[in-house]
Every structure is written in structure tokens, then in C-alpha cells.
Structure prediction request, 336 residues.
Amino acid sequence: MRRRFPSIKRSLGGRIASLLVIFVGTALLFVSAQSTGSAAVTSVLALEHAWNQAEERKDAKALDAIFDNALVYIDDDGSIRSKSEFLSHVRAPGSLPELEVTESMTAHQFGTTVVVAGVYVLKGTEHGKAYLRRGRFIDTWILEDGKWLCVASQSTPILH
Amino acid sequence: MESGCAWPASQLPFSTERWQLRSKVIGNNWRLFFILIAILLRPGASAQSAGQSNPEQGRILSLENAWNQALQQKDAAALRMLLAPDLVYVDYDGTLMDKTEYLASVQAASLHPVHLVSESMKVHLYGGVAMVEGVCREIGIKNGRPYSVRLRFTDAWIRRGESWICVASQSTLIEP
Prediction:
């Protein structure tokens, strides 16, 4: 599972890094929205941000509202999850990564469809083993009854 | 693309010479013809369309199959018809490409995809938007070495007039 903004920090250096990451993330969000200049893109990027916050809070109810019922979620190991499986995974108690950050995020609008592409970095420990993963994601959003819903999300590790 | 699977060339399950000869024999016009036929195929003609009740779903699956054929034939002209000018493409190694970069990668002389087959595909329709999820197996030769990969992918298609174009595509490696 990925989130695309900073999460928990355990040291002073981590806290400073966290603040920097929030600043850079906010700036990127602003720049991305500005570069396309679309209200739709601004709305979707705000929802991407809300997604990250909801995941950090394990707020499945908030996530439920921004995902289409037929959500297709593909994690960076290629595993596929339905909406209910993804929400269960969010609710489940588990180890949190030490650092999760989005390096870049751009949105492309195609009428009532917005495609968001970005790069994320995850750092943490799982089953006693440290990991550092960098990957690329695409989220696809559609406008349905005046509301933007995410219909698909996929992540792929960057291997080079 | 490189892969974890390395077969000795003598044990490949296909003849590369035969494939290259076939590619030369089939001209560009014929390739386009085959692609157009695939686009016009009704849903019942596609194996992957079984179980898909909406004709549009079958049509999109035909386009997916046409994509695979065009890749095997390194047919950039056919691919150009299937892909939106603003395509967002993420390859299974995480490389981000636009349409021009993707078409260039397909035409690379060092890459010879020999066999591409989608094991399963499912189409989710949202009016003029369609999401396809599936698993694809690709076998070929890159830089003189055989490769074999299995991928899970999603493709986003939007309706353009009477047809559909792909606006986003992403693949992630899965166990062979």
C-alpha cells in the first residue's frame, strides 16, 4: 500500500524532513494544478491529498467516498484488490512506514476523466527488515453525478 | 526489457528467423488492414470477450488484442491510431513515457517481442470511459537475449466518436 505524502517521523531530523516534505508536497500540488489550470485538475489533486490524509488516519469511511465501487487497485507487487479489500487493508493494524513521500505528481484531463501520474518513495521496516521502495503510480478519476471518483490505481516499482 | 527468465536461444519455443521473415513479408498496408479488422470485430469473435455483455466491452477487448498484434509486428502506425496524443504510459520497469517515447521504444531495433497474449481481461465501463484490467504474458528477445515476463496492467480508454482511444496504461511485474 502506498500513501503519497509524509507520515510518521521518529526523530528530530525526521520531523524536519517531514516539514520539508509537507512544504515541497504542497508546492508540487500547487504547481501541478497551476500547470494545467483546470478546476477539474485542482479538484482531483485535492482528492489525492485527501486520500493520503485519510489513509494516514485509517479513515476507511472517507476513502469509501472517493472510490468507485468497482475500484481496481493494483499494488507495486502486482497484487490486485477490490474496493472492499483495499478498505479492509487500510483498517487493519500494521506497521507504518517511517517515510512516505511524493516526489512529483502531474494531472492530465481528458474531458470528464483525469489521469494523475506521480512518483512515490516509501521507507520503513516490515517483518524486521528495512526497505526503501521508489515507484510510479497512475490514478484514474472520472466525474460521476458531479463528483470525482477514483476508478483505478496502480503502482509499479522503478527498477532503474 | 530484460527479464528474470533466460532461455538458451536454441531452446526458445519459437523460431526467431521465421518470425523476422514473416514480419518482412507482411507489408505495412496489410498490418493496418488486420488492425482495422480487429477494431471492427464484434464481441463474440474475441476469446476474451466471453462473458462481457456490452458490445462496447467487446469492442474495447478487440482494441486490446489489436494493440498486442501491433506490438508483435512493431507497427507504430497501427499503435498511433489506438493511443491518445497525450498518452500517459508507465512501463513495467517504472519508466514514464509519452506517446512519442512509447512508439520509439516499440520500434527499437534491439527489441523483438515474439509472443504477447493476454491471459485475462476485464472491462469496466463508465459511459464514455472504460478501464481494462488484465494479465499479459510477453516473450521475446531484447539485446540478443530471450526474455519472458508476466504483467498485470490497467488501461484507461475514452470514447472518441465511434471509436475509443487509450489515454493511460501501466504495467506491474508479477510472478511468472
About this structure: Residues 12-157 of chain A form a domain with the Nuclear Transport Factor 2; Chain: A, fold (CATH 3.10.450.50). The first strand of chain A starts at residue 67 and ends at 74.
